[in-house]
Amino acid sequence: MKGILAAFTLVCVLAQQTFGAGQAEVTSSNRDGSLLTDQGTCYYRGMNIPNGQTVKLSNPCEQWTCLSTAQKVTVKGCKAPRNYGDCPSHFKEGEYPKCCPGILC
What we know:
Elements: H1 2-31, E1 35-38, E2 41-44, E3 47-50, E4 54-56, E5 63-67, E6 72-76, E7 89-90, E8 102-103
Antiparallel strand pairs: 1-2, 2-3, 4-5, 5-6, 7-8
């Protein structure tokens, strides 16, 4: 009987370690930029965004909108600035779209 109990305990410990490792992989795979959706929330690049909500970022200079029911995040970025002679482009301060690059002359 002790042998059966020891074997059952070992199986339970191994199952817990296996499922625990799977959960850690989900967390680490989300850090690499992949999109996860769950119960009306988008988990994208380390941020939790409620369905239908928009976040404006400064780094990267982008706007993200969660569409969890469609399993999507829409990303808006800056337009590339047109060259104007020898004037260099530079990024500005603030959240999207204020941080989009402009021409400095």
